[in-house]
Amino acid sequence: MVILGRYLLALSVLIFFVFPIYWLFAISFKTPEEIFHFPPVWYPQKIQFANYWVLFKDGDATSVWNSFILAGSSTIIAMILGTICAYSLVRFKTGGENFAVWIISQRLMPPIAIIFPIFLLYVFFGWVDSYGGLILLYTAFNLPYVIWMMRGYIEDIPIELEESALVDGCSRWAVLWKVVFPMARAGLFATAVFTFVFAWNEFIFALVLSRTEVTTYTVQVTHYFGGQSNFWAKIAAMSVLGTVPVFITVATLQRFLVRGISMGAVKG
Amino acid sequence: MAQSFASVSSAVRRSPQMPDHNFRYWIIAPSVFLLLLIGLFPLIYAFVVSFQQITMTDYDTSFAGLVNYQALFSDQRLWESILHTIVITVIALPVELILGLALAYLFLEKMYGKQIFISLIVLPTVISPIVSGATWRLLFDQRYGPINQVLSWIAGREVVMLWTIEPILVYPAILICEIWQWTPFMFLILLAALSSVDKSLTEAAELDGAGFWRIFLKIELPAIWPVMAIAILIRGVDLFRIFDMVWALTGGGPGTYTETISIYTYVQGFRQFETSYTAAIAFLIVALMSFVVTWAIRRMGLAK
Amino acid sequence: MVAMSSGKREGRMSLLKKIALTASAAIVTAGLTSAAWAESAAERAVKEAQKYKGQTITIVWEAGLQSLDPLNFSGPLWEKLTGIKVKVVEVQTAEMFTKIMQEYRAGTGAYDALNVIPAWMPDLANAGALEVLDPYVQKYGYGDELQKIAATYRDNQMKVDGKIFGFPDDGDVFVMYYRKDVFGDAKVQEAFKAKTGRDLAVPKNWKDFGETGAALTEILKPQNMYGAAFFRQPPYTMFMFQERFRNEGGKFFDAESMKATINSDVGVKVLTEMRNENKFMPPGVEQWGFVENLAAFMAGQTAMTISWPPYGRWAAGYGTDEKALSWVPKSTVAGKVGYAMPPGGHPELAAGFALSVASTSKNKDAAYLFIQWLNSEDISLQRVKLPTALRDPFRDSHFTDPGYLALWPDAKDYLAALQAGSKSGLLDLSLLQTDKYEEVLRQAIGKLWAGEDPKKILDAAAGEWDAITKKIGVDKQKAVYANWASKSGAYPQ
């Protein structure tokens, strides 16, 4: 019975979180008359993929691809650089408290205030409207988050494992790749998901630092909110397109969340 | 406990290995480089500009002293926006934490379909905040949205609740949307943390007869505390900077009733090009947040 | 993974495009080869632009529906005629001002031509972001055709301080749309007379509107129809406030002291009436934007509404078969829509667009020639007739064009209404830092819907306006205001 209760609870939670997504999903299939119908229409009469098709035809769907490249690349780089930096902070206390605090302070500045100087910086380097420029930016933005999160997860790794590896003759780098990364994989997964999400949903910098080449999905979606128009179908379809890749990624990398890795030989 | 292990073995930490002294610096180098590259110039620029008087019409770069900073104190709208932001942060953060923790426990043990459940629950966080704000605006719409329709069914008569206009409903609307979108964040992070807690410890405690709360407070909470504290910190900081979702849901309205500090900064900096004043606001915010964050870090024992 | 398509938004446009391209090419060729006849501005532009063949010019355009014009029609056509490529930078309306200013301040030279909302012109011109166009108009002989733009747009949306900074390119004006069939229904007329003692007629002033709307809502209840609805969201209502306030005799400022006078009795009356009107409109109308209001009207749920010209075209079913307009609810009221001046008789020329050249452009002449060509008699006529156009008629010739008149049965009434509106229309308030003043108004509306007292709201708003004026410099703003107030469209004549 506990199990049934658990399922019922899980289901109600699911409904709360998924219903608005369903609504958005449904909008992408509804006709405008259904979207703006009184009383509200709960499901579309017909499922037709015309709205999605239009996005591909117009080339708008490339904005999802752009977002994917930017978010994906910056996540991978940030995860690697940030985790090893976190390792240094945890195991060697590099820079002490001040350094750690300085890192987190990088996340405190409201983007609005630094957008223009960064714009100027990018104009100077010729990085406006370029993939590399935005990847660099997102990586830098996410580093504080990755570093601080991985600090917490790395602290949970018993140091004996690393020490036995060192004693076995591994170099420091090998210890990182062979022991730390695998042991922290649940944390890596959770951190990577949100690092990706932060980069994926970033709007203001993508808006200012792009013109025509590197339009991301967040910027593209705002093109559909006009003063004299509202392409709800496109907004919804685009959002669904933007969500599916992440859903698949999260679903497949789920297994890293396996509970309770036993220490076995190490623990006394 | 992981913490005490670390401190006990710190004496043994430095193995008799080849010079690894520089290793610690090599691995922080790329991160530091990137952070300096992107972080330093804007900070200096904003700092300098805050002492000038650049507005939309006047490109006055002469040194104007503390004029902008003085103006901060008499700007009522600014302080109101800080209040609004604090209200949202102080309510949303604990709720997201508790709900996230509860959900993490719900999905901790094996369960059929767990993979699907978790992936679906994480979806709200993935949607662009602009889209989520706009979607909830539609959901809350009096005429075209399902929420009021359901409420009408329950009440048995037509319910008129203008969620994005009536002062008494606006904050609940924002909070619902916010909690909906970001509880999964806490949930996944805490799930990962709980998953890493050594099962043998909890099993041993159970065998000894300890109840759920005992195990939680004595074993699991301390174990996940480093991660949980950081998640709280990060989410708190992000809540303070909240912009896209509120902008799409209420536009800061009615009037300036739900204007957060980022929205106000946006209006000043982006619409009205009060470049210098905006820089001053930004430093005020950074100063405030640094103060709070440093206090929080010390209090939560994060930087030891 | 994701298919990358190269052609942007073609397909259904291509047949029309082909016809337009061929026709235009024919016209241009005929023009170029005829020696004795004075050449049109479009022809002149094309001719002069030949020397810039192979270059690319960038133009900033409102994202979404608006940019279909340069992406599918005018851009490709221009390239065909002159060899100059047009790169369209789509920007959401709300961000256009910001992007233009930022690129200008950073001196990037990234934009050549611009779309500018006329209310922004004083700010952009004063900041130095816009190129003065008088020398170009002279050089390329555009003076004559420029004069033929409908007077209100021409005299009000082109110049700042006597210098030309942009070409008005969009006849945005508020039109009253009403259901002819409802107003002409004998039973409804009877019920109305019985209820109010007057004859049912399209209201000519706001007092009548209030009465008519309330009565109609009662009478039409069995049909689930309301007397009227508007887009009551603050940004849109801000325009309506500007319109009604002036129609009722209000003045924004005291010309001598430059103190704000929006909190006069007129202002309070307007706000109070607006709130009372919401009572006979669909519940939740305070949340309605452009599309919600459109959906209600198109579904036949409201008997009156006021909005921009596109409502009229789409209600008649013109263009709504286009894929690009698939988000527009299908009209159930085609053939049943009448057009009139909003109550008061002086509609707001809300927003609008003008074409300008960026002062930091590296291709100013090429950019200028493109906008001269776009804005010219020949080409602008074709552009406003595009089924997906959001550009509304703005030249005298547009209102009488046989091609346009033939587009749907009631088109002649529609064009007549637009033309009348362009004659008596009121200009958006346009000062230094207009957005600050407009923002105060937007928030005032928000507070109004939240239930605050109109007098308190307006007193606070007037106070804020005065503070803004003081910060900018009373004398400075006074001069700009005097300049604006002297325009024919500033206050009802």
Task: Walk me through this protein's architecture.
The complex is a heterotrimer of chains A (268), B (304) and C (493). Chain A folds into 2 domains: 48 residues, no CATH class; 204 residues, MetI-like fold (Orthogonal Bundle). Helices cover 71% and strands 0% of the residues of chain A. Chain A is built from 13 helices and no strands. The C terminus of chain A is likely disordered. In chain B, strands 1-2 form a two-stranded antiparallel ribbon. In chain B, helix 4 packs across helix 15 and helix 8 packs across helix 10. With 304 residues, chain B is an all-alpha fold. Chain C is mainly α. In chain C, the strands form 5 sheets. Chain C has a 3-stranded antiparallel beta sheet with strand order 3-11-6. A 3-stranded antiparallel beta sheet of chain C has the order 8-7-9. The N terminus of chain C is likely disordered. The chains are: A mainly alpha (268), B mainly alpha (304), C mainly alpha (493). Chains in contact: A-B, A-C, B-C.
Quickly list its features.
heterotrimer, B: 304 residues, mainly alpha, 2 strands, disordered N terminus, C: 493 residues, D-Maltodextrin-Binding Protein, domain 2, three-stranded antiparallel sheet, 23 helices, 50% helix, 9% strand
In short:
With 304 residues, chain B is mostly helical. Helix content of chain B is 72%, strand content 1%. The two termini of chain B are 16 Å apart.
The largest sheet of chain A is: none
Give the domain tally of chain C: 2
- Estimate the helix proportion of chain C, in percent: 40-55%
Radius of gyration computed on alpha carbons of chain C = 23 Å
Number of helices of chain C: 23
- At the fourth level of CATH, the homologous superfamily of the largest domain in chain A is MetI-like
Mean pLDDT across the residues of chain A is 86
Q: What is the H/E string of chain A?
A: HHHHHHHHHHHHH
Number of strands of chain A: 0
The spatial strand order of the largest sheet of chain C comes to 3-11-6
Catalogue the unreliable spans of chain A.
Answer: 261-268
Percent in helix of chain A: over 70%
The biggest beta sheet of chain C, please?
A: 3 strands, antiparallel
First and last CA, distance of chain C:
62 Å
